[in-house]
Amino acid sequence: MATLEDIWWREGESERSLALLAALSFAEGLFAAAAAGRRALFRSGLWPSARAPVPVISLGNLAVGGAGKTPATLCVGQRLLARGRRPAILSRGYRASLRNPRVVSDGRSLLLSANEAGDEPFMLARRLPQAAVLCGSQRAALASRAVVELGADALVLDDGFQHLALARDLDVVVIDAVNPIGNGRLLPRGPNRERFQALSRAQLAWLSRVDEALPDALRSLRASAQAATGRPPVESTHSVTDVLDGALGRSLGADALRGRRVLALCALARPEGFHRTLARLGAQVVAKKSFRDHHAFSDAEIEQVLSTATASGCDAVATTEKDAVRLPPRWVGEPCFRVVRISAQIVAGAEILDALLDRMLASRSPTSTAAAPPEAGQER
Predict the structure, then answer these.
(1) What is the rounded distance in angstroms from the CA atom of residue 16 to the CA atom of residue 270?
(2) Following CA atoms 132, 380, 55, 201 in sequence, which dihedral angle do they give, to the nearest 10 degrees?
(3) Options 3.40.50.300, 3.40.630.30, 3.30.390.10, 2.60.40.10; which CATH number does 56-233+349-363 get?
(4) 344 CB-contact burial (10 Å; exposed 0-12 / middle 13-18 / buried 19+)
(5) If I label 336, which of 11, 116, 316, 355 is the partner at 20 to 30 A Cα–Cα?
(6) What are the pLDDT digits (tens) for 152-211?
């Protein structure tokens, strides 16, 4: 039977079980009602939103997984650092082994492993060593901790568009220009947390992978995003800035995969984007091994991947940086691994993003006293 991801992103109604689709549609109705009720409670003030004492920018999605939010978060973090700020990134730490509120990086040292932190927070901490990174479900409490204990004077709320318990000064929603909304349905019938109309709550849309989108579809998406937010969107491509070894300690150069026969290894919501990236790098993808998003690789799985690569005559096993941080320790030194490092390269709208960031920072001066953390159970 097809996975949910197949139904969400590559749906062929005639090929699916009608009973399965009916059950998912019923669950979709429950999800939509619950989400609408939750938003209404926050709008009414019955569920209050905590206000941090420093500016907060949220990077979020309408759909789950694969939109390019992490490269966008890196880009915003770099812009805050370039402005002399001490940013802290607040993340939920999805599928981490630890569940308690925790500091992944204090802006000086990396304090947790990828398994303890979650792959995306760990990667953000590695790529932005001067920024603090904190994880936990109660991100208003994390905000207070980041300001009081770590001296943060700007906060980046990672995956925060639906996280209404922490007020924000700027909402940016990242949308994959290649496949913005999948089959158009809400969870669990489709990949969307909210319908496209919810974009009107944001001040800015960010369209990723615009170089891979069909021109007519991109023009339509650009117009819809501008109509929803009142300003043109940021547009970016996924630019390969380097290819590294499995331990992420040695640069091999962005052309390291050109002409090489590779096995593509990834655990992403939408692996097709990674496969397209490898093709653009000039690699010949002769084998593929894909796992569920954020999958924790076992020793046996990596051993099987390497065996398949050898049997397929591959020169290398190519993977993403997010996946590389989840390789079991015994395999990170394997010489055949090649890790593709991606950055968001803004091709349109950089001046709009910069103006909004500058306005946000100017409008709220950091205070010396942090807001009190929310009471237990306040965040929802």
Answers:
(1) 20
(2) 130
(3) 3.40.50.300
(4) buried
(5) 116
(6) 999 999 999 999 999 999 999 999 999 999 999 999 999 999 999 999 999 999 999 999
